[in-house]
Write a structure and sequence with these properties.
The complex is a heterodimer of chains A (534) and B (158).
Chain A (H helix, E strand, L loop, with lengths): L2 H19 L4 H27 L7 E4 L10 E4 L1 H24 L2 H5 L2 H17 L3 H20 L4 H32 L4 H7 L8 H19 L7 H5 L5 H25 L5 H24 L4 H25 L3 H36 L10 H4 L1 H15 L5 H16 L2 H27 L28 H19 L2 H15 L1 H9 L16
Helix pairs in contact in A: 1-2, 1-5, 2-3, 2-5, 3-5, 3-11, 3-14, 3-19, 5-6, 6-7, 6-11, 7-9, 8-21, 9-11, 11-13, 11-14, 12-13, 12-18, 13-14, 13-17, 13-18, 14-16, 14-17, 14-19, 14-20, 16-18, 16-19, 17-18, 17-19
Chain B lengths: L1 H19 L4 H22 L68 H31 L13
Helix pairs in contact in B: 1-2, 2-3
Classes of the chains: A mainly alpha (534), B mainly alpha (158).
């Protein structure tokens, strides 16, 4: 049993349990929350190191409860899973630190910090599981925590947003569950590696039925990932909770959906890559366009960012769509590496933008761009910290977003998919327009109502600004670190790209994954074991 | 039996979708509950109905050793159908050749598959918890907004 695979799930669970034991002392929750998130980051890094295996990427497998592979639940970590766990830890740590300076007392007293840990546990579990029903269970763990985090505080807008978020995610879960049921009826197994083996295109007699089920999965994961016709819950809810929660959701939750799409459509549903690839590519193009146009129409800081999440999801699945549309393995690797690189870049940048929006709201007293202004004059440092992720999101060199887009566009051009390349470039331009709108309105223009005098420089004191300072190292630290990561990925992107490329190669090599999971047997299988008595 | 259940599942989905599309918050909740029941029944039906099959308990053949009672493991293939029952239509729902029982060659040929029930049980517990939460959420939303009309819950969309 490889403890490394269990730790990213176990550490937040223990942290949450400890906080519930210390329920009456919310002050204790704060250090525990930071320690728990740091534990996820550390164990995730160790996992990535061990999956990287000195340049010969390995598939790490642990069979829970010592049941041999297709019968029990397997935890599997290939490079993609390990990368995602590291990102979860990074975002979790940043948000846990940011929460120290931004979450108010009542929310802490009602269990904000334990919920954050449970959310991290659910996300890590979803990334690490090798069993499709177990994936459903982790999705539900994650969703349940996110429901409560979203509604915690009980403001009217939060509750309204939560109604939509909860409803659409429950429908997605019902579709996911139905798809699992039909898939089990077809293949008689739930282990992803075993499914991949049993539904192998060469052995399949009726691929149409499997294709139908794969579309059910695409719909269910598409709702969670906010892909084009299914994204409406996201901009309706992500701007309502406290900024720390928004940033956590923006960084992690939709990416779990994207991860699940990439996982099942590279491992299990490879029966008709041309059809699914075309469909995903069309969805990617429409997602990019609708997202960015939605953002252009908005005038609220976080709503603009929320629509940009939708738009960026299009880029992430664009690589996967290209994989299905081309036959050349080299090109497939490049496209999928582009997707993975984009996910890495996006999680860092988008979380950072949301964190900046929170500081801007504290300083300017509002999320409405009309009411903001003058932040560049008063706080040039913060303005720079906004500009780095904003330009990176739009894809300005030499920041991380430029290279992420470059890889995808290169893959698209070499595959001859000029339409999607054109869409991706145009959407990049419109993203720049949106970011410049925020820059011009919130940072560049004079503070509204201030006139030319100095009397308007004092920020209006909101209800949250009474007890705590407007900015603090807990707020600015994570923002600065994330901006530095963005610049670092841009300037020295080679290692990240090599990692993404290795992860893509590993994803496309299905046999290694299948063999890795199914051959990992804890004991010789000849000896019959005693199942537990009910 | 499959036909009846299939019609029932279809009816549940239709009713659930209809209720979810209604404007009342309460009907929305009932619709979500019905949708999750429909999914559960679908798993049950798609997992293969084996009315005459025995539960997968295998008689002990070896003398009990240090490991205690050792019934063989039944792989969750769900393929076992009673061959002695000619009336039962072949419930194989797909064209995939199912693997033979490799792990337990001594298992009787006609055993029921317990896994769909286990999945449904898990799903029921989860949907129970989630629905209980949604009920509380909808009630709070009703208190905060003062209406149960979903068309009026649109201040966050603008």
């Amino acid at each position: 049993m490889n403890l490394l695979l269990v730790l990213p799930i176990l550490i937040p669970l223990i942290a949450a349990a400890a906080m519930i034991v210390a329920w009456r002392w919310p002050r204790l929750h704060r250090p525990l929350g930071v320690v728990g998130a740091a534990g996820v980051l550390l164990s995730g890094s160790a996992l990535l190191w061990s999956a990287w295996n000195g340049g010969a990427p390995a598939v790490l497998v642990t069979q829970m409860g010592d049941w041999p592979a297709p019968f029990g639940v397997s935890l599997v970590a290939d490079l993609l899973s390990a990368i995602m766990v590291v990102l979860t830890g990074t975002v979790g740590l940043a948000v846990a630190v940011y929460s120290l300076g931004s979450i108010d007392g009542p929310r802490e007293a009602y269990g904000y910090h334990p919920l954050l840990q449970v959310l991290l546990m659910g996300v890590c579990g979803a990334f690490l599981t090798g069993d499709i029903f177990n994936l459903y269970v982790w999705f539900e763990v994650m969703l349940m925590a996110s429901f409560v985090l979203l509604a915690l505080g009980g403001e009217r807008s939060q509750l309204e947003g939560a109604v939509k978020y909860v409803t659409l995610n429950l429908i997605a879960s019902a579709i996911f569950l139905a798809a699992i049921g039909i898939l089990y009826g077809i293949a008689g197994t739930l282990n992803l590696a075993d499914l991949a083996q049993k539904l192998d295109p060469a052995r399949l007699e009726r691929p149409g039925l499997v294709l139908t089920v794969s579309m059910l999965f695409l719909t269910a994961f598409g709702i969670k990932a906010a892909v084009f016709p299914l994204f409406f819950w996201l901009p309706a809810s992500y701007h309502t909770p406290p900024v720390a929660v928004s940033a956590l959701f923006a960084g992690l939750l939709t990416k779990v959906g994207v991860y699940a799409i990439i996982r099942v459509f590279t491992l299990v549903f490879v029966q008709d890559p041309g059809y699914t690839g075309t469909l995903i590519l069309a969805g990617a193009a429409l997602t990019m366009v609708t997202g960015v146009l939605g953002a252009a129409a908005q005038h609220e800081f976080r709503r603009i960012l929320s629509f940009h999440i939708v738009s960026q999801i299009g880029y992430m699945i664009m690589g996967l769509g290209l994989v299905g549309r081309t036959k050349s393995p080299e090109l497939q690797t490049l496209a999928l590496a582009g997707s993975i690189f984009y996910i890495v870049h996006h999680i860092i940048v988008k979380t950072n933008l949301f964190l900046v929006s929170g500081v801007a709201q504290r300083l300017g007293g509002s999320f409405e761009l009309k009411k903001l202004g003058g932040l560049y004059r008063d706080h040039p440092g913060l303005a720079m910290l906004f500009l780095i992720p904003a330009l990176s999101l739009a894809g300005v060199p030499p920041l991380s977003g430029f290279f992420a887009k470059l890889i995808l566009i290169q893959a698209g051009l070499r595959a001859g998919e000029y339409l999607i390349v054109g869409v991706a470039l145009a959407v990049g331009l419109l993203t720049l327009f949106s970011m410049m709108k925020i820059w011009a309105e919130a940072f560049w223009k004079a503070r509204p109502g201030a006139g030319d005098g100095e009397e308007g420089a004092a920020p209006p004191a909101g209800p949250s600004a009474v007890h705590r300072p407007l900015t603090s190292p807990a707020l600015l630290g994570p923002i600065a670190v994330f901006a530095a990561i963005t610049v670092a990925i841009g300037l020295g992107g080679r290692p990240v790209f090599s990692l993404a490329e290795a992860a893509a190669r590993q994803l496309l090599d299905r046999r290694a994954y299948i063999a890795g999971v199914l051959s990992e047997r804890p004991r010789p299988p000849a000896e019959p074991k005693a199942p537990e008595q009910p | 039996m499959e036909t009846i259940l299939a019609i029932l599942v279809g009816a549940l989905y239709a009713g659930g979708v209809y209720l979810v599309l209604r404007r009342s918050v309460v009907k929305l909740l009932i619709g979500l509950a019905i949708l999750s029941h429909a999914a559960n029944l679908l798993i049950f039906t798609a997992g293969g109905l084996t009315p005459r099959a025995k539960p997968p308990l295998v008689a002990e053949e070896h003398p009990p050793d240090a490991a205690g009672p050792a019934p063989a493991i039944k792989p969750p293939s769900g393929a076992a159908i009673d061959p002695a029952d000619p009336v039962e239509p072949h419930p194989e729902p797909a064209g995939v050749a199912r693997p033979a029982d490799e792990a337990s060659p001594r298992a009787p040929p006609a055993t029921a598959d317990p896994l769909p029930q286990a999945l449904i049980l898990t799903a029921i517990v989860i949907s129970f918890a989630v629905l209980a939460f949604s009920l509380a959420l909808m009630q709070r939303a009703y208190q905060a907004v003062g209406t149960d009309d979903l068309d009026r819950l649109n201040t966050t969309d603008r």
